[in-house]
Amino acid sequence: MLSSINSRAIVPVACAVTGFVIACCVLLFTFVKDDLIRGEVQHAADLADTVIKSTRYAMLHDDRETLSNIISSIGDQNQVEHVRIFNKKGLIMFSREQGELDKFIDKSAAGCNECHAEAMPKSSLGTMAQARQFNNKEGKDVLAITAPIYNEPECSNAACHFHTSEQSLLGTLDIGVSQDPLKETLGQLQNRMIVFSGMILILTVGAVCALLYRQVFLPIKQLADFTEIPVNGRLDEDFPDVSGDIARLAKSFQEMTNRVQELETQVSSKGDEAS
User: Fold this and answer.
1) Per-block average pLDDT, block size 10, for the chain (275 residues)?
2) Which residues of 93-102 are buried (b: 16+ CB within 10 A; e: fewer)?
3) Residue 250: which residues within 8 A CB-CB, separation 6 or more?
4) DSSP 3-state assignment of 52?
5) How far apart are CA 141 and CA 135, in angstroms?
6) CB 183 within 8 A of CB 97
7) Helices (runs of H) and strands (runs of E) counted in the chain
8) So what's the pLDDT on residue 256?
């Protein structure tokens, strides 16, 4: 009977604690994952901004050779999967991949449809809206940023430029970085969270089981042993060392046993007198 009580008490508690710990760890992992992804997007956005600033001088002087060399050098950096600049019409003007040059991009593709979803294209987007994730031709996970190149006063006033000051957007920089480092970090984080969850789960369930045994199961066992003692007299010497409701229950059982014993004695005495 006691083992049945133990299982009925421990199993629900263990399941509840397990579910709570797993839910907390999943939520924590989700929050950390979102923060890491946002940080990666911000890093890509900062990289795109750095590229635009690095090419600014070459653009002002319409130095296409220098601009092409800069794009190629950036594209050769570790973790950079692609980098290209296309004009307002979607014609790729500069790219690390020479086969992309003088080709039009698909404006309905990811990275373009955010601006071109409406009849009047948007001239600016938030950092998260500029980002997109996809698998490239090699099957690698890529995080790409499309950053607009605005027509600054230095551009429209330059002698070599034909852009008017009313033209706010000159083109777009599209740069993609590999997500392999992020995936590796998330994998390590997931493994550590699993180990951490297991440790917390073992400690929590163990502590709850120890508390239940000390406060519930052990007093019940003592009470069960107390009720199995043969009634050969008063049970004062065998009263279990318990407290609370278990003590009151044991006391009631003792009083009942004593009362039954007294009644048996009275009945036995009357029987002897009658005989």
Assistant:
1) 62 82 90 92 89 83 85 88 87 87 73 54 58 83 87 60 63 90 92 90 85 76 66 52 65 71 70 60
2) bbbbeeeeee
3) 222, 223, 226, 239, 240, 242
4) helix
5) 5
6) no
7) 9, 5
8) 74
How many other β-carbons are positioned within 10 Å of the β-carbon of residue 193?
Answer: 15
pTM for the model stands at 0.66
Per the listing, tokens 């951490």 go with: 196
Q: Which two tokens stand for residue 104?
A: 């039009």
Both tokens of 29, joined, read 């992992």
Q: 263 near 237, Cβ under 8 Å?
A: no
How far apart are alpha carbons 61 and 41 in whole angstroms?
A: 31
Question: Strand, coil or helix: what is 131?
Answer: strand
d(CA 87, CA 93): 7
Q: Which residue has tokens 């984080």?
A: 189
Total count of residues recorded for the chain: 275
Q: Is 169 helix (H, G, I), strand (E, B) or coil?
A: strand
Other CB atoms within 10 A of residue 212 CB: 15
What residue has token string 């777009």? 172
Q: How is residue 82 written in tokens?
A: 């692609």
64-78 burial code (b ≥16 CB/10 A, e <16): eeebbebbeebbeee
Q: So what's the pLDDT on residue 191? A: 93
Question: What does the alpha-carbon distance between residue 129 and residue 46 come to, in Å, rounded to a whole number?
Answer: 15
pLDDT score recorded for residue 208 = 82
